[in-house]
Amino acid sequence: MNMRCTKIVCIGQNYPAHAREMNSSPPSRPIIFLKPPSSLIGDGEVIEAPVELGRVDHEVELAIIMGKRTRRASVEDALSHVSGVAVLNDVTARDMQAAARRAGQPWALSKGLDTFAPMSAPVPLSSVEDVHELELELRVNGEVRQRGRTADMLFPPEQLIAYISSYMTLEEGDIIATGTPEGVSGLNDGDLVEASISGVGKVSNRVRRV
Ligand code: MG
Known about the structure:
Blueprint: E1 8-12, H1 16-21, E2 31-35, E3 40-41, E4 46-48, E5 56-57, E6 60-66, E7 82-89, E8 92-93, H2 94-102, H3 108-112, E9 117-118, E10 123-124, E11 135-140, E12 143-149, H4 157-165, E13 175-177, E14 192-197, E15 201-208
Parallel strand pairs: 1-13, 3-9, 4-15
Antiparallel strand pairs: 1-2, 5-8, 6-7, 6-13, 7-10, 11-12, 11-14, 14-15
The structure holds magnesium ion.
Magnesium ion binds at residues 10, 59, 61, 90, 179-180.
């Protein structure tokens, strides 16, 4: 995927029901990690998840695309810094992540493999009626695995932008993946993963596990 992007800033456990399924209590401030831009792929490309990784999960998320350099944005002003939104699948090597968490080590690698960030083509923020009232859905081979509403986010997009940009400059084209609702599950060879958000778009990818 050809996008100008210096980083993908991801939010962990931003939906209370997903925090519970990860055996965590909802965080009191956003949990931040990064995926490298090299993990991005587009609609129709293949998610390459080597079988030796063990369990690899899908996570449907609303992606926010920054429209300009942003440093210390206020909550009130934050959305004026956004150019677009998209659907992002935060693919996660779950066994690798769990092992890192148990050992108290960073879990960057489990999130950062090539092809682990499928994303739909962004649409302008102005084309979306209300970013706080979107419905997310993820299907595997046509079967619904995740369903959620952005209204259930612990920290909505404007709070995330203000929080992140108080520590880290966001550049034009940077992506914020705003967290996933409940229902994450493992992916098998040949699976077709379709992540969609009402009024935003859809990203469909076949999974290869060899
Ligand atoms: Mg995620």
